[in-house]
Design brief:
The complex is a heterodimer of chains A (about 325) and B (about 450). Chain A has about 325 residues and is an alpha+beta fold. Chain A has two domains: about 5-15 and about 185-335, 2-Layer Sandwich (Aldehyde Oxidoreductase, domain 4), CATH 3.30.365; about 25-165, Aldehyde Oxidoreductase, domain 4 (2-Layer Sandwich), CATH 3.30.365. Chain A is built from six helices and eleven strands. Chain A has helices at about 50-60, 90-115, 145-155, 220-240, 300-310, 320-334; strands at about 5-15, 25-30, 35-40, 70, 125, 130-135, 140-145, 160-165, 185-195, 205-215, 270-275. The radius of gyration of chain A is 25 Å and the shape is elongated. In chain B, about 25% of the residues lie in helices and about 20% in strands. The two termini of chain B are about 45 Å apart. In chain B, about 55% of the residues are buried. Chains A and B meet through strand 1, helix 1, strand 9, strand 10 and helix 4 of A and strand 9, strand 10, helix 6, strand 13 and helix 8 of B. Chain A: One of its GO terms (molecular function) is oxidoreductase activity.
Amino acid sequence: MARLFGRGYAAVNYPTGMNLGGDPSQALIHATTTGTFVISLSSVDLGQGLKTVVAQCAAETLGLPIENILVDTADTDTGPHCMGTFASRGTHRIGNAVIMAATEARAVLLDVAAEELEVDAADLETDGTGYVKLKGSEQRKIHITDLAMAAHFTHGRTISGRGVYMKDKSEVVPETGEMDPDSCQAHACTVAEVEVDDETGIVEVLAMYSVYEVGRALNPAMATQQVEGGAWMGISHALFETTEPYYPVRDHGPRDFTEYLMPGAGDIPVQHSVLLERPAATGPFGAKGIGEMTANSPIPAIANAIFDACGVRLEHMPFTPERVLRGIDELHAG
Amino acid sequence: MAHRQTPIDDTYFAGERAGSFTVVGSPVARSDARGHVTGRTEFFEDVRPAGLLHLKMHRSARHHARLVTVDTAAARAVPGVVAVLTHQDIPNNLYTPLKLIGVTPDDEPVLAVDKVRYLGEPIVAVVAETEAAALAGAAAVTVDYDDLPAVFDVEEALAEGAPLVNEYQGNNYFTYEGHHCRRVRFGDVDKAFAAADHVFEWRYQSSPIEQAPVETTGCVVVPQPDGRLRIHSDTQACFFTLDNTALILESEFNKLRIVGGTVGGGFGGKVDVVVEPVACVAAMVTHRPVKFVYGRYEEMQVSSPRAAERIYLKDGVSADGRILARQVRAYIDAGAYSRHTPYGTTKAAAHFPGPYAIPNVSIDCHCVFTNRTPSSAMRGFGVTIGDFALESQMDRIARALDLDPLRLRLINAYRDGDMKAHRKLAEGTALVEVIQKAADLVGHDLPEPYRSMSSTDRKGR
């Protein structure tokens, strides 16, 4: 009886978006007289941080502090159309739509500032502090709150913008499968280190080393949460989860979380992750969609590590203690 | 605010990372984090309008059966029960969610009509003053079944003589423009297999997986004074839910309003449109607000999971580890109805044969109907299980040929300008670099020429 160490590797890619039906999302943006910009969407933030990253995209494009951005979303009466949050499309599609809307709004913002400061709009700049100023001057400047007031009360202008991102629908050629379904590809490589207990069949993931190529990490803290949370889900898929434990037999389905087990705190390995950035031509500031990919590479990395540890090739997910033990028995019988 | 942050190695693609930013690339705090951790975030279940009714479902106790009689008299007699709905109450009872992007046919009833095709299929909706009364009412419905033979295995379902699962589809597979599967053809695999030094074929299988959100699927529908319905939902796609619901209700689209955007875990499970239509009908019939939220058992066993997949990979490989041909046969278990699985199956076809430059590829991805809970979207569907198969296969080839597993991947890795099997030119590739960096992380020896390979050229190929 022993705990057997093994190491396994896996490398994957993942598509951003899936536009077989056409895939548009819209964004509207406008300044209130407080100098706050409201982004109107109907998109859904599932917890991945969509509202935060699109606010960052707007702040960067407008040249204003993040505190000047509000996101009003997910009401079909007030927000323009979005296809939805799926297929790792949210940051890419909605980020692009927001950048387009904010670019249009910025042009108006600079126009109004030029009139207020009596300079040429092309000579103005923003630095993210909330002021629009004449390039190279610390005196000729106007704060966004004063600017928004002036736009409304003096100039009768709306500081607003419209944005949409759409990749044309791709029809699949039925004979060959020729198609253009995605916008870019993210990448990952995971190395998993495991110990297999050859008496109980329990697999413990000791450590995971992952490298993710994400285009651009718009928010490195939230990208970290995505890669670490996704890797957790990958471990869970690999070792724990199914609604039909003896598939295709339909019996013994779990009914709740006491029967449907997932890794707890003690099952989570040390994660060593690194991000690489190869900005995508189509991405907002180069970002690719990474949300879904991060669960994928851990699964085969763990399968390959189990083989490395004990010589059992597991062809059926999840890799439960029962399957590991049956595999070990077969090896000994053989 | 303190935060963990994964390091970015900016030595890779340094020339392509131009641009300086003030907000992008900085760890701005998540806008809703404080509300989540202090319990102040409002989810759809925090909407508690006066006079709220509760909807619970009587579900099929059989895998595949004709409905002989459905008796709702006892349910109507349960104290507190306000309304009992059957398929006759649903204006347009037959639907499929992807009809919005042109997918046909409509193949699923909102409430079962003359037969059930999976265990847990909804038959009768019971609406009551309390959750307990709705549950008691749903339990009081009695159904007489005439059992039909059921099929649970994807390859058995495709065999001659298998019971037909879904009459609207006509076959136990989804038909792609006249084909029984989604196919990709690139080069000539048969010729390449004949010429290869080695041919390897292995089989992979997964079981269904639950999205497992903390918050189960649900909605609260509130009739408005102007005759519209305000639907508080945890959907992942507000307009997609609105449009599908309007089609089922035969309602004008602007009579409905979805209010959502705060979701206690989605992972694909909240892309289906399974609670809003029947809750809207209940609200229209009773003129009162109605809540329909899945219990945990429903979320686990009735709500659509990640599809089980069976995948056969056959590779022709040269003695030095170059993959010359890859043939993929994938069987993706849609369960009894299509939902989003025809789309996920096409996504799988576009993803195979993986991130490798393989000159000869043949892919058949079958979307198969069986008598189980319909599968649908889940994080990475069409890709996740494929990656398990593909990367297990690469490990086995490396071991069979006594090659280093990372070097095998590097000599086959796709690079910029490679033509993928679905005839899309690869760009922005970075498989080579993530492998090189991962080798560094664990001290895996990677000598020249592997060390100097790059996604931007063909050196070392």
